[in-house]
Amino acid sequence: MLSSTCFLEQSAQSALSSGDYSTAFALRTELRSLQPDSVNNLLHLMLLAMHGDGLSLEQMTDLDLSARLELAAREGTDVDQELLLQALNKYLEEPFLAVETVDFVSACQEVVEDAEAFMAVVFPPATRLGYGRGWYGLAAALTEICLVANPGDINLLMQLPLLCQKANIFDRGVSAACECLEVADNDIDRLNASHILLRGLLNTGGHWDEAVAMVPDHRSRIATFVSASPILSQVDARRLLPTAYLLPYMEDCPEQNHRVQNQLIAVSERSIQTYAQEQYDRYQASHKAKRLKPRSAKLKVGYICHCFHSHSVGWLARWLLQHHDVEQVELYAYMINPVKKADYVQEQYRQIVSHVRECGFDGLETAEKIHQDGIDILVDLDSLTLDLTCEVMALKPAPIQVTWLGWDASGFSTIDYYFADRYVLPENAQDYYVEEIWRLPTTYLAVDGFEVGEPDLTRSQLDIPEDAVVFYSGQRGYKRHRDTTIWQLQIVAQVPKGIFLVKGLADEDAVKVFFYELADEVGLSRDRLRFAPQADSEPIHRANLAMADVVLDTFPYNGATTTMEALWMERPLVTLVGEQFAARNSYGMLMNAGVEEGIAWSPEEYIEWGVRLGNDPDLRKTVMEKLRLSKTQAPLWNAKQFAQDVEAAYEQMADRFWSDDQAAVQQRQDRIDRARAMPETPIAQIAQAVLVLVNWQVEEEILEQQLYGLLDRIFSSPSEHRFLIDTTGVDEETADAVLGGALMNFLMMQEVELEDEPNMMLVSPLNETRLTQFLTQNFHCAKLVLGDACLDANLIDRVNAIANY
Question: What local confidence, expressed as pLDDT, does residue 706 receive?
Answer without folding.
Answer: 60
